[in-house]
Amino acid sequence: MIQMKNVIKKYPNGIIAVKGLNIEIKQGEFAYIVGPSGAGKSTFIKMMYREEKPTSGEIRVNGTDIAQLKDKEIPFLRRGMGVVFQDFKLLPRKNVYENVAFALEVIEEKPENIKKRVSDVLKLVGLAKKANMFPDELSGGEQQRVAIARSIVNTPKVVIADEPTGNLDPETSWEIMRLFDEINARGTTIIMATHNKEIVNTMRKRVIAIENGQIVRDERGGDYGYEF
């Protein structure tokens, strides 16, 4: 699903965020990206959906070398993946249904398909009865559920999540993680950057640890491995 070969990212200010990354994440895996603040996790995540472009090296997503994509081709890349952020990034003037449907409207999906697919994913995330509510009427956990629904409504092969439980209380965080686990069980690859030690240590998925822009540990059924 995702391959990186000798990937380097150097920012204009001279900071080298990642240094010669080599990694492969297969279809259906659930991988945590962990490490200290400033280790390069966010750059690693952002390069996967071309928010950041590598300075050199090769990044393949589902067979396509995305490092070579032109800017106009990037939206087509993102149609095949879901991205979930810590701060939800919902559209405040659209209700729950409209926020999720928007992801399909921009790719000009047929209205009848939009209605069915949005209905299905809102049931999956437990928000079918709140379809007409607006983001500011929802709790933080509910807003994140909307964001997750939006990320999977186009049935992506991979979902990339950057600190998706960072703004949530522990109980709500577990609810969100159980939802991600269910999505993964249906065959979707999940790649998640997180600082949540308890969740990583309990769920025992693949753990990829990054320090100073380099992968220092990669193990299946791993633990968080850091004390802060």
From TrEMBL:
NCBIfam families: FtsE. Keywords: ATP-binding, Cell cycle, Cell division, Cell membrane, Membrane, Nucleotide-binding, Transport. InterPro entries: AAA+_ATPase, ABC_transporter-like_ATP-bd, ABC_transporter-like_CS, ABC_transpr_LolD-like, Cell_div_FtsE, P-loop_NTPase. It comes from Kurthia zopfii. It is a peripheral membrane protein. One of its GO terms (biological process) is cell division. Residues 2-228 form the ABC transporter domain. PROSITE patterns: ABC_TRANSPORTER_1, ABC_TRANSPORTER_2. This is Cell division ATP-binding protein FtsE. CDD domains: ABC_FtsE. It holds the Pfam family ABC_tran. Belongs to the ABC transporter superfamily. GO terms for cellular component: plasma membrane. Gene3D superfamilies: P-loop containing nucleotide triphosphate hydrolases. It comes from the Bacteria. Part of the ABC transporter FtsEX involved in cellular division. It is found in: Cell membrane. Homodimer. Forms a membrane-associated complex with FtsX. One of its GO terms (molecular function) is ATP hydrolysis activity.
